[in-house]
Amino acid sequence: MIDTSKWIVRYQSRPKVRLRLFCLPYAGGSASIYRQWSELLPSDIEVCPIQLPGRENRSKEPLFNHVTPLVQSLLPVLRPYLDLPYAFFGHSMGALISFELARQIHNQRYPEPQHLFVSSRRSPHISASNTPIHQLPEAAFWEELLLYGGVPDALLQNPQIAKFFLPLLRADFAIHETYKYTPGVRFNFPITAFGGLQDKKVESEEIMAWREMTNSDFDLHLFPGNHFFIRQEYHQILSIIAQDLNRKIAA
Q: Which range of residues forms the domain containing residue 161?
């Protein structure tokens, strides 16, 4: 039997759940980045952050460095939770994982999501223009990470902490940088994309290109901030998500 408790973290019980929101983290992130979301979204929306191997309570488990085996491992975990309407939210790496999950769900004819929310990630069909960094020497790797604008000072000032996180960050960036897009059918559910106006790694036009992934509605919301604008703008982001999902619940 699959142990779903390792993968799906539920910070608050929701006795009258009408829709689930599965949240996928950015590179180096864990389920706890979404801890507050369950307090700020309506009570009939259950926030289900995904805890990937290699972080927090799963710190000793082997890391994934390619998206395909990760999705193949995660999909059977999610399957029992698709009995209710649901949506995906993913930031950066999490957006890519969410996209590939939705694709496999479509291919296997499981109930499809009501909505896909993607953040700080170019559309999957656009090749990255940046030079891969996951195999760079340590000093050069950290220099590249600084360009994203979200590396905590504690990580940079404490060599032991930095050494601990280095394999995780390399593996997560490998998920990004080894990804190969293959053409497929467009989704029939809406996509909402979010981006940071000062993001040095992802252009607004690259985020806008997510509209090519769906036959349904597409919305783009740009906020002041860098690649990690989500840390400052999450109240507005959650307001948009709540409005979109409440329409689904009402329907």
A: 4-250
C-beta separation of 96 from 125 below 8 A = no
The token pair that represents 40 in the structure block: 């700020």
Alpha helices (H) in the chain, listed in sequence order: 4-7, 37-40, 67-78, 93-107, 138-146, 153-157, 159-177, 204-208, 230-250
Sheet holding 191-196, edge to edge: 45-49, 19-24, 86-91, 115-119, 191-196, 218-223
What confidence tens digit (pLDDT) does each residue in 131-173 have?
A: 888 999 988 988 888 888 777 777 777 888 888 889 999 999 9
234, two tokens: 């999450």
Q: Dump pLDDT digits (tens) for 68-97.
A: 999 999 999 999 999 999 999 999 999 999
One-letter amino acid identity for 21? L
216: domain CATH number is 3.40.50.1820
Which residue among 92, 119, 120, 123 is the active-site one?
92
pTM exceeding the 0.90 threshold for the entire prediction: yes
Active site residue 92: yes
| DSSP-based three-state secondary structure for 109 | coil
211 contacts 217 by C-beta, under 8 angstroms: no
What's the structural domain count of the chain? 1
Could you tell me the end-to-end alpha-carbon distance of the chain, in angstroms, rounded to an integer? 35
**2 pLDDT more than 70:** no
Q: How far is CA 49 from the centre of its chain?
A: 10
